[in-house]
C-alpha cells in the first residue's frame, strides 16, 4: 500500500505516519509543490532495495570490465610506432 501526503501534513503528523508505516508495512510518499520528493519505507524494504542495488552494481561492473571479443588491443604507449 502506498500513501501520498503533502510536506505540511508530513511535518505535522510525522509520529502518526511512522506509526502507520510500522503497522501497515506500506510506503508513504511525500510531495512538495506537486512533485514527489521523499519516501518513508519500512526497514525490510530498505534492506531489500540495498541488496537489489548491490546486485545490479556488480552486474554492471562485470559488463563494463569484461574483455570484448574480436577487439584489437593497442600496444602500450612506449611501444607505439611514430
Written overview of the protein:
With 82 residues, the protein is α+β, with helices and mostly antiparallel strands. It has 3 helices and 3 strands, in the order E-H-H-E-E-H. Strands 1-2-3 form a 3-stranded mixed sheet. The protein is elongated. The termini are far apart.
In short, what is this structure?
The chain has 82 residues and is α+β, with helices and mostly antiparallel strands.
Which key phrases capture this entry?
3 strands; three-stranded mixed beta sheet; alpha+beta; elongated; 49% helix; 82 residues; 3 helices
Note the topology.
Elements: E1 2-6, H1 7-12, H2 14-24, E2 27-32, E3 35-40, H3 43-65
Parallel strand pairs: 1-2
Antiparallel strand pairs: 2-3
Which shape, going by the Cα principal axes? elongated
Measure the end-to-end span.
Answer: 66 Å
Beta-strand percentage range: 15-25%
Uncertain residue segments? none
Number of strands: 3
> Which value, in Å, is the CA radius of gyration?
24 Å
- The class by helix and strand makeup works out as alpha+beta
Order of helices and strands: EHHEEH
Q: Strands across the major sheet, in which order?
A: 1-2-3
Q: How does the major sheet shape up?
A: 3 strands, mixed
Would you tell me the overall average pLDDT?
87
Helical stretch count? 3
What oligomeric arrangement do these chains adopt?
single chain
Helix content: 40-55%
